[in-house]
């Protein structure tokens, strides 16, 4: 090493190079040191500029409810209400006063029914417009154990539909806002507030027992489809009673609101997507829902597509507060979430109290599905014979559930050709290949028919289609106009996309 240094310094050229390298290192170190010192100075200057938190800077404090500021300090009345609620939950509240407050419910539900409601434990998932009204109605009616789950905070735009929020609650988690306000009405109610997002992973903990008591009912007031499906599927599979609120957005007609089975809910995009995904998980019915049959029309509110300038900002998914949550403002008339929420609460109260109730019947269409399935079986057997196959014992891989899914979810109970809703059947759209019968298993013959091959027609239309397309020489393009052909193409593509959920 020393000999290399000696040789390097003996050369004038090498000396210049060595000097330049050393100088560069020294200058670089000085620049970096200066930059670091400047950063440290700026951080110290910034910290020094932050005022100490004192009474003159109350807006920097968080309230006990997690509000963003303490600009609206609790009033003396609020403080008295909180103190009274704390004592009431410990039993320091006259039961005669509670019964007097619940007197109208008591004579309606009877002592036995009211006692069931007072002992019930209900979980409300989603505490916005629908959930807040449902919670308020339950608390006012005597339900004394409520778990509230919601990740969101009260905003100014929440105030057109939220049951209890005020300006003072803006920035406060919705679950705590509801508890704070309802404690002033029913101080004996035990609220368990979970300011968190419901998820399938956390469902066992979020829907767990409270002090050893399993939930008597769960209310789904979520407006995110994936979370809604996860909640309903969990409750269904674990035999927890649940009722779900479908979409109140863009709705305005209170006379079109119904309570029925999810299989009967119609004319609601949220309900449609929820039904589809639940069917894919094996849940086709057995869940009561509140839904509206109101149809969109000229002049009515609708959810418009995002403008091009929003897409230009980046990935649409990055525009939302959370991944997979909607990024557009839903048009909502403030009265409709309240009606949905009160209808949900009404159902829960009647169910828990054992009060008799008989809603408008849901669609009993199982017999129709059986008939359509039998008609499809016959059509496949006739087609097999026309190809020279022995059709005796032929099986088709389509079930009654598949028929219901295609008729209701894909084709909305109408013929794709004429839009008629009577005398419906399922029929192949295109002529099959020569080998559409599988005989590889000895003693068994089955059609290779797939759901994406089928469309809904009337029986008269199906007879003509079978004769001219499936057994004849014509193609669908020879019989139908461009509108029908495009509709079928889009429906088949839609079904193929949803097939992955099954």
TrEMBL record:
<dbReference type="GO" id="GO:0008641">
    <property type="term" value="F:ubiquitin-like modifier activating enzyme activity"/>
</dbReference>
<keyword id="KW-0067">ATP-binding</keyword>
<dbReference type="GO" id="GO:0005524">
    <property type="term" value="F:ATP binding"/>
</dbReference>
<keyword id="KW-0436">Ligase</keyword>
<keyword id="KW-0812">Transmembrane</keyword>
<feature type="transmembrane region" description="Helical">
    <location>
        <begin position="12"/>
        <end position="34"/>
    </location>
</feature>
<protein>
    <recommendedName>
        <fullName>THIF-type NAD/FAD binding fold domain-containing protein</fullName>
    </recommendedName>
</protein>
<keyword id="KW-1000">Mitochondrion outer membrane</keyword>
<feature type="domain" description="THIF-type NAD/FAD binding fold">
    <location>
        <begin position="104"/>
        <end position="358"/>
    </location>
</feature>
<dbReference type="InterPro" id="IPR000594">
    <property type="entry name" value="ThiF_NAD_FAD-bd"/>
</dbReference>
<dbReference type="GO" id="GO:0005741">
    <property type="term" value="C:mitochondrial outer membrane"/>
</dbReference>
<keyword id="KW-0472">Membrane</keyword>
<comment type="similarity">
    <text>Belongs to the HesA/MoeB/ThiF family.</text>
</comment>
<keyword id="KW-0496">Mitochondrion</keyword>
<dbReference type="InterPro" id="IPR035985">
    <property type="entry name" value="Ubiquitin-activating_enz"/>
</dbReference>
<keyword id="KW-0547">Nucleotide-binding</keyword>
<dbReference type="InterPro" id="IPR045886">
    <property type="entry name" value="ThiF/MoeB/HesA"/>
</dbReference>
<dbReference type="Pfam" id="PF00899">
    <property type="entry name" value="ThiF"/>
</dbReference>
<keyword id="KW-1133">Transmembrane helix</keyword>
<dbReference type="GO" id="GO:0061503">
    <property type="term" value="F:tRNA threonylcarbamoyladenosine dehydratase"/>
</dbReference>
<comment type="function">
    <text>Catalyzes the ATP-dependent dehydration of threonylcarbamoyladenosine at position 37 (t(6)A37) to form cyclic t(6)A37 (ct(6)A37) in tRNAs that read codons beginning with adenine.</text>
</comment>
<dbReference type="GO" id="GO:0061504">
    <property type="term" value="P:cyclic threonylcarbamoyladenosine biosynthetic process"/>
</dbReference>
